[in-house]
Specification:
- This protein has 388 residues and is of the alpha+beta class.
- The chain is built from eleven helices and eight strands.
- Strands 1, 2, 3, 4, 5, 6, 7 and 8 form an eight-stranded mixed β-sheet that branches.
- α4 packs parallel to α7, α7 runs parallel beside α9 and α8 runs antiparallel to α9.
- The two termini are 39 Å apart.
- The structure holds flavin-adenine dinucleotide.
Length: 388
């Protein structure tokens, strides 16, 4: 039992402690090492899997902990607060795990969920396209029914950690004649990461993180009939099942980064003396740290609220967007204040802050941009005209 978003239960505190213990041997230096080697954070990932933390939101019958997104938020935040903000947590367990739990067939769940829970398997998630971007209505990747199953054609871009994934959950357009609704629609398909006809081209990005990004080209990639997740042509429900947990887990990751940065900023500002008192005694240094802490506390509550709504099967779209926007602001403010408090050392690799600049900046663009979240909030919360 997670408790309410306002008061954490003893079980939640114990869960936090378990995550801290699992992460203790690693820290930011491990994160940098695997990121620079462009590798999978295998040791940390296995430690999290062994402690039952990757599968907290996966049902027990598939090897998980049988809890929910609220618990995945705790895990993701604590992992990031330990200095290892793994985007992979927002992708593989959050989007793909939740989508399969809610919309996968029994066979798909049996194939994938135990591996996602143990950490043995990871899934990539592919929705973004070069010519569609934020506007998924312009998606061009198609899935056409064949005698054996489905044939996928098109391109996806900025797809993370395909090089370390066993499978890809991919979103494609389904024509009216193949659609369960008789109209054009979207479908979700599970494909092997090494499927014939799939090629991946690495995109170089200026972000320190172990996950690499790829443009994928799909040239008549054949997937079997039982690879469809949800209903072909009526995949919106399955799509949104994954997108909200991705936003919530991204917010949790950013909250963890903010905690990590503020802890470092506060410590340094308490110890560093260049006049007669520690620099933290100067309000110009203390206030940005304090203001970022205020934002962070608001963000953690909003994130917990979004997770609670999702777990209660209530509409979590607006709350997930609000949490993600607030968390992006909190993490940006916290990292900036912590770097400023460090002076020149804020730029040094050794102090482990500027190493996170690219990643924190990314989350104003992905998995959903702040502008698209604000579009949603403007319409849903304020009743403003739809702008997209
Ligand atoms: C490191 C990294 C990892 C990623 N991982 C994945 C992944 O694993 N899987 C995946 O599918 N995708 C992934 N993405 C893609 C990411 O989700 C997209 O980049 C993001 O959704 C924005 O789409 P876009 O880049 O096409 O920007 P565009 O849609 O081209 O938008 C460009 C700018 O215009 C703004 N904009 C667009 N439309 C509007 C509007 N109507 N109103 C106001 N502003 C607007 C956007 O907010 C943005 O600032 C990743 C991206 C990066 C950089």
């Amino acid at each position: 039992m997670i408790g309410t978003p306002l008061v954490e239960s003893e079980t939640t505190k114990a869960l936090r402690q378990t995550v801290r213990e699992a992460c203790a041997p690693f820290g930011h230096s491990y994160f940098l090492e695997v990121s620079r080697a462009h590798g999978h954070p295998r040791k940390l990932w296995s430690a999290l899997g062994d402690a039952g933390l990757l599968g907290v939101s996966i049902p027990e019958e598939f090897g998980g902990g049988g809890a929910g997104t609220a618990e995945l938020v705790i895990v993701t935040e604590e992992v990031a607060a330990s200095g290892s903000p793994l985007m992979l947590l927002a992708l593989s367990p959050a989007v793909c795990g939740n989508t399969l739990v809610a919309h996968g067939t029994q066979a798909q769940r049996e194939r994938w969920l135990p591996g996602l829970a143990s950490g043995q398997d990871v899934l990539a998630y592919a929705i973004t396209e070069p010519d569609a971007g934020s506007n998924s209505h312009r998606m061009r990747t198609t899935a056409r029914r064949t005698a054996q199953g489905w044939s996928l054609n098109g391109a996806k871009t900025y797809i993370s950690h395909v090089d370390n994934a066993q499978g890809i959950l991919i979103v494609a357009k389904v024509r009216a004649e193949d659609s369960v609704t008789g109209r054009d629609g979207l479908g979700l398909f599970l494909m092997d990461a090494d499927a014939p006809g799939l090629t991946a081209q690495k995109i170089d990005v200026e972000i320190t993180s172990p996950e690499r990004q790829f443009t994928l080209f799909l040239d008549n990639v054949e997937v079997s009939a039982d690879s469809v997740v949800g209903e072909p042509g009526n995949g919106i429900a399955a799509l949104f099942t994954g997108l909200n947990p991705e936003r919530i887990a991204s917010a949790a990751l950013l909250n963890g980064i903010a905690r990590y940065a503020l802890a470092k900023g506060a410590k340094y500002a308490s110890e560093r003396v260049v006049w007669d008192v520690p620099i933290g005694a100067h309000q110009a240094i203390a206030h940005p740290l304090a203001r970022a802490h205020v934002l962070l506390e608001a963000s953690r509550l909003l994130t917990a609220r979004a997770a609670a709504l999702y777990d209660a099967d209530m509409d979590a779209g607006e709350a997930s967007n609000i949490a993600k926007v607030c968390a992006s602001d909190a993490a940006s403010a916290a990292l900036d204040a912590a770097i400023q408090a460090h002076g020149g050392n804020g730029m040094a690799t050794e102090y482990g802050l500027s190493t996170l600049l690219g990643l924190v900046r990314l989350f104003r663009i992905a998995p959903v941009s702040t502008e698209m979240s604000l579009n949603h909030i403007a319409r849903k919360s304020l009743g403003l005209p739809k702008s997209y």
